[in-house]
Specification:
This protein is an alpha+beta fold. The chain contains 19 helices and 26 strands. The strands form seven sheets. The protein has a seven-stranded antiparallel β-sheet, covered by helices on one side. Strand 1 and strand 2 form a beta hairpin. Helix 3 packs across helix 4, helix 5 runs parallel beside helix 7 and helix 15 crosses helix 16. The chain is elongated.
């Protein structure tokens, strides 16, 4: 005997091997058509039959079920609940065969729009209104499937459907996986074997791998676009009222930046004291005089947290109209928060003389590193015959910077850290900064990557005096019990360096306190600290009562966490685009390209001319700084990968040489750490 039953929504037939019980409690041990041993109870069985054989019945029933007119079957069915055999007689007649009855079971089970399931083998036809609605939905679904198929065909052929162009970026970066567009797109990728980005580029929906990397970042962190709202800016009346009450500083300040800097946050001044020595001024742009907590511009700055830097462009934290009003551009007086400290004739700073005040600062010059850095050296600073702008002031600042550096090294040493050497790094060393310049030549983008040695005199002057300003700011906040965003570093481990709202030491810099405050046009942490410092400059000991952020402010704690997260993400994006442009540099002239690399550790090597890291496993057993000539080919700008084949490994002092000729698929990492200890 054979039994018809349902399992997992499918109609199946099993052949009885043995039976127990009678009537409603009868049960059977049976074997399904797939050979599976099962046990069935009487209430689970829809139909029993002896002949024909089960496989033949299922084959014929499957074919017949596709020919059943469901609308006619619905018309034949009674209004009340019915069984399989009852409706079979209505549809096929009194002589309905077993295969016909089984085909009806398959049709009924697979037509929930027409028939409701009321039990095993029991059904009731759907009310007319529900049937009409269900059929309309099926029709829509069929049209969607047809449209999906057409879209898939277009995508496979390399034509991006016109209807999908407006949602191309959403489809790539944040797709609705239940939509027909995504299903067509996903099916096309599966058919062609391409990644979503590869398919998009081939179809012209995105321009290039660079557009993919940029789009992925913007969708995650700037979903509403990176362009500032032109209606949000500084109120001119509020600006004029804020600066009207500021005194004019009796200094001539100058900034030191590269030519690409448009947000000039800081400047320096040197004033001779009547009793000997000099007063050093660190002047910081002061947008905090006009921007206020929770106003429209604060919302803009807080949503971005920082200016985003990457090769060829940047996304500013504040609108250009705000930057233009507060950037310390030469040729006039600018509102600033100034920190002053007196140094003696030897250049030693007296921290007891630290003062801070808001004022208008005359900016006499914006010095550009490209124009002056090569002129400044220990020799030229002492040579009376050598002339260049602010030579006297730079000599005084340099002498004092060396003392500041030495004082920090003593504390580093006390914390168990090695002493950092002052001065230019070995020009043959890999630890360098790099300048990426993107140029368009005859409609083709080319990248020029030029190294710049760290540790020049101008580097050190700027770094040491900005560190001093951040240290003094942290000290002032701590001494007056004002919360702020303190940059701390203590102990070891992944959370060694962190942002917190309470004071703490920065062992890496050799400082008791450190609060970022020198870049309020570019970092939200510095703007927040400026608000607190302005309250202190204006109100002194009562600052705690009027500061925008009181002690234990939960909002400030949230800002600290959000800033850390955003700052890390922006840094990773900068690294990613540096990888992209490094690989563009590798591929733009010739491919494959022969390049020298230096082994660092664990098989990771650095390309000598550019900040590109390549894992080369066969170099893992060689000493650090082993030099090798490699051939780089098959650059993939989407995956940021390339193939590397070692041509020659230079011999070490013992004359040993590694294996040659192996090729590996690698994923490079470009760039040294953007922020070294001196800027942390």
């Amino acid at each position: 005997m054979n039994l018809l039953y349902e399992e997992g929504g499918d109609i199946k037939i099993a052949t009885v091997q043995s039976a127990t019980g009678t009537g409603d409690v009868e049960s059977w041990q049976a074997t399904s058509l797939s050979g599976k041993k099962i046990k069935l109870k009487a209430k689970e069985v829809w139909l029993r039959f002896e002949k024909p054989e089960a496989p033949a019945v299922m084959d014929e029933a499957t074919t017949l079920s596709k020919e059943i007119d469901l609308q006619l079957l619905w018309d034949c069915a009674p209004d009340e609940e019915f069984g399989l055999v009852d409706v079979a007689h209505e549809y096929f007649g009194d002589q309905a065969t077993i295969p016909q009855q089984v085909s009806l079971a398959i049709a009924l089970q697979g037509a929930p729009v027409f028939f409701r399931r009321k039990g095993r083998g029991r059904f009731q036809r759907a009310p007319l209104e529900q049937l009409q609605a269900g059929l309309a939905a099926l029709e829509r679904k069929q049209k969607e499937l047809e449209q999906q198929s057409l879209w898939q065909q277009d995508l496979v052929a390399g034509a991006f459907p016109e209807a999908l162009k407006a949602s191309a970026k959403q489809l790539l970066f944040v797709p609705d996986k239940n939509s027909s567009a995504y299903k067509a797109f996903n099916a096309a990728c599966a058919e062609t074997g391409e990644s979503p980005a590869q398919l998009m580029i081939r179809c012209g929906a995105i321009d290039s791998p660079l557009a993919y990397h940029q789009g992925m970042f913007l969708k995650a962190y700037f979903p509403n676009g990176s362009v500032h709202n032109p209606n949000v800016g500084v109120d001119q009346d509020a600006y004029e009222a804020a600066i009207a009450e500021l005194p004019l500083a009796d200094v001539q300040a100058f900034s030191i930046d590269d030519s690409g800097t448009t947000e000039i946050d800081d400047a320096l001044s040197v004033t001779e004291l009547p009793e000997g020595g000099h007063r050093i001024g660190i002047h910081i742009a002061a947008p905090g005089l006009v921007l206020a907590r929770d106003d429209a511009l604060d919302e803009v700055a807080r949503s971005r947290m920082s200016t985003v830097y990457f090769p060829g462009d940047k996304i500013t934290m504040l609108p250009d109209t705000v930057i233009q009003k507060f950037s310390l551009d030469e040729g006039g007086s600018r509102p600033a928060l100034s920190v002053y400290v007196d140094i003696n004739a030897e250049g030693v700073a007296n921290r007891e003389t630290i003062q801070m005040r808001a004022e208008m600062v005359p900016i006499a010059a914006n010095l550009r590193l490209e124009n002056i850095e090569h002129l400044v050296s220990d020799e030229t600073l002492l040579d009376a015959a050598t002339k260049y702008p602010y030579k006297k002031e730079l000599a005084i600042l340099w002498r004092a910077a060396k003392h500041l550096h030495a004082g920090r090294q003593e504390k580093r040493l006390a914390s168990g850290l090695r002493v950092e050497q002052l001065g230019l790094i070995d020009p043959n060393a890999l630890a360098r900064d790099f300048h990426f310049q993107i140029k368009n030549k005859d409609g083709v983008e080319r990248v020029e990557i030029t190294p710049r040695q760290r540790g020049s005199i101008l580097d050190t002057i700027v770094a040491e005096w900005m560190i001093f300003c951040n240290s003094a700011s942290g000290q002032l906040l701590a001494d007056h019990g004002l919360p702020g965003l303190f940059r701390t570093q203590k102990g070891w481990g992944p959370m060694r360096t962190r942002m917190q709202t309470t004071p703490g030491p920065h062992e890496g810099l050799g400082l008791d306190y450190y609060a970022w405050s020198t870049s309020p046009l570019r970092r939200y942490s510095d703007l927040v600290n400026q608000w607190q410092l302005l309250a202190l400059a204006k109100h002194g000991v009562t600052a705690k009562m009027v500061a925008p952020f009181p002690p234990r402010d939960a909002v400030l704690m949230g800002i600290a966490a959000d800033f850390e997260s955003s700052y890390q993400a922006y840094g990773e994006y900068q690294d990613r685009l540096e990888k992209y442009w490094c690989l563009r540099w590798v591929a733009q002239d010739e491919s494959p390209r022969d390049i020298y690399v230096r082994h660092l550790k664990e098989g990771m090597s650095r390309v000598e001319p550019i900040p590109l890291h390549l894992p080369i496993p066969e170099m893992a057993s060689h000493p650090r700084m082993t030099r090798a000539l490699v051939k780089v080919s098959d650059v993939d700008l989407l995956q940021l990968s390339a193939a590397v084949r070692v041509i020659e490994i230079e011999k070490d002092d013992q004359g040993n040489q590694g294996n040659q000729g192996e090729e590996n698929q690698v994923t490079p990492a470009a760039g040294d750490a953007e922020e070294d200890a001196s800027l942390e």
